[in-house]
Amino acid sequence: MIVIPAVDLREGKCVRLVEGRIDRETVYSDDPVAMARQWESQGASWLHVVDLDGAFTGGLKNIGIIREIIAALSIPVEVGGGIRDMAAIEELLGMGAKRVILGTAAIVNPELVARAAEKYGETIAVGIDARDGKVAIEGWGVTSEKDALELAVQMKARGVNRLVFTDIKRDGTLKGPNLAATERVARVTGLKIIAAGGISNMEDLIAVAGLEHAGVEAVITGKALYAGSIIFKDALALIEKR
After folding, report:
1. What's the Rg (C-alpha) of the chain?
2. Tens digits of per-residue pLDDT, 162-196?
3. pTM for the structure as a whole
4. Where do runs of H (alpha helix) occur along the chain?
5. pLDDT confidence of residue 10
6. Residues marked as catalytic
7. Would you say residue 20 has pLDDT above 90?
8. How far is 81 from 194, CA to CA, in rounded Å?
9. What value does the mean pLDDT take over residues 108-128?
10. CATH 3.20.20.70 for the 2-240 domain, yes or no
11. DSSP secondary-structure letter at 205?
12. Counting Cβ atoms within 10 Å, is residue 17 exposed (0-12), middle (13-18) or buried (19+)?
């Protein structure tokens, strides 16, 4: 099980939101590149970067900082948020991103997902952000009528091999992950799953690691790291070395 620290970008800063709400934002650093270097220095094998401004409005709004982060690190970086056309995918891959995560595009332009998956294979993942079982898009500001599990199955049919599955009501709350929903998506689809949302302590990480047999290969954690309720080096020693 891989533990992936998150760097969420908004207006050039490293922030965390609660349930994706801008009015519940905490700024953790004015220097996201330094924060990314910190996680690498502590042993991270991947970094998860989200352009929140892009997610809310579409388009890559923090592209300069994303480029700096990728250039500054030797570990692979996955990027999501506002990526809704092939040009954005190619720009990110061209600057060295190792994985591009498509979210809103999976709902509004599934053919883009299919073309990207066919062309770029494992470097393309789909982010499914669920609120009460329904898929939220546009930075979680809009909840669609699409069932999250149904979309996951459809994305597999489009050629996707990996999902980032987030329970929005848990994200940034430190209330613990939605293990049942995560396991269900993993078992029904047979896809590789990266779990996210609600990780609050080491016990939560252990619980998610218990889903590895179902196909959950990694877990993203953000607020728990920034708040200090999880010490990253301890998490690596406990989870990745199992």
Report:
1. 16
2. 999 998 766 555 678 899 999 999 999 999 999 99
3. 0.93
4. 32-41, 52-57, 63-72, 86-94, 104-108, 110-120, 148-157, 179-189, 202-209, 223-227, 232-235
5. 94
6. 8, 129
7. no
8. 16
9. 97
10. yes
11. H
12. buried
Handedness of CA 1, 160, 197, 172 (dihedral sign): positive
22 φ, ψ (degrees, to nearest 5):
-65, -30
List the chain domain ranges.
2-240
DSSP assigned state of 109 = -
- DSSP strand pairing (13-18 vs 2-10): antiparallel
Position 197, amino acid: G
**Tokens of residue 225, six digits:** 């790291």
Residue 140's pLDDT band, with cuts at 50, 70 and 90, is low
Partnered with residue 221 across adjacent β-strands are 5
Greatest pairwise CA separation for the chain in angstroms: 42
Provide the token pair at 224.
């728990």
pLDDT digits (tens, 9 = 90+) for 186-230: 999 999 999 998 899 999 999 999 999 999 999 999 989 999 999
Is 192 within 8 Å of 157 (Cβ atoms)?
no
- Please, are residues 216 and 182 in contact by the beta-carbon 8 Å criterion? yes
For residue 228, which of 152, 148, 174, 187 has the smallest C-alpha distance?
174
Residue 153 has pLDDT above 60, yes or no: yes
Residue 8, pLDDT > 90, answer yes
Closest C-alpha among 121, 216, 114 to residue 165: 216
Q: Which residue do the tokens 């009015």 mark?
A: 23
Closest CA to 181 of 163, 166, 203: 166
Three-class secondary structure of residue 74 per DSSP: coil
Report how far residue 16's alpha carbon sits from residue 5's, in angstroms, rounded to the nearest whole number. 12
Over range 56-60, report the average pLDDT. Answer: 89
